[in-house]
Fold this protein.
Amino acid sequence: MIDRRLLFTAATAAFGATVLPTRGRAEPEWPNKPVRFIVGFSAGSTPDLIARTIGEPLSQLAGQPIVVENKPGASGNIAADVVAKAHDEHTAGVMINANLTIARILNPSVTYDPSHDLAPICMVGTTPFVLTVSPKWAKGGLDQFRATGSKLNYGSVGIGSMAHLGMELLISKLGIKPTHVPYPGNPKVLQALMTNEIDLAFVPAGIAMQQVNSGNVGALAIASAKRSDLAPGVPTLAELGVPGIEIEGWVGVAVPAPMEEAHRKKLEALVLKVLGSPEVRKQLAQQGWDVVAMPSKAFAHRIETETAMLSEIIKAQNIHVN
């Protein structure tokens, strides 16, 4: 007669031989395919340049290509919506302030909710805004605009962008009512300034000062609490008698909120490591950015507080998307 204890032992051993390797199988490494960096503005725009600057060293660290995809339109919200709805665990966005703060406050028809559909990974850097003017206004001051009133045009990268909200504050203080003309990126804004298609705009210091130094546009003031090394010799608006306008642009990385936490943490660690590179920091500084490398928790808090602040500006100035 066969000993039942031996049969039970043999069966248990056989079962364990098939199950244990499965239980011990490691999760696939992330990323295990190319990672898309979606940018909501055209090639050559400030978010695009940042995405490409950090993308190359990031691909080396991650062991997978970082593919930058430009999807301009709606002040970057089209691209943000693509990111919010991605489910492949390998899609991220390089976004500006408005995409992660007041996009839906400005326009309830926006199909993603920044506070619920996107998860902040890291703020890359900040930049002050320069009040940049077309050549015909380059040698005057702020008073020249008061005399022209509503005959002016001003540009921005879109409704709800920091450049737009800052300009709305400025024109309310100057008592003028120029026409707002949105463009799909700062290169287009500068081109419009250089050809006198528009008269003035807030443009990030890095890209603005390249054209200022070349004599193609003028720089009247900077919208900061103090002068900036990124715009040497340019006075603050407060110095010119217009206090209370302190705005800055920032660019950050965000992913779909449902993305697995382990993958988000891995991406955060990789981006922060890239931003710690002296070479990358030098490149970003040359583009006009102060690298802050703000981690996800602090970035989320910044987004929350800035959303509240910008909402007040939108309400006070009655800004909305038509």
Q: What stands out?
A: The CA atoms of residues 156 and 182 lie 5 Å apart. The chain has two domains: 35-126+249-317, 128-240. The domain at 35-126+249-317 is CATH 3.40.190.150 (D-Maltodextrin-Binding Protein; domain 2).
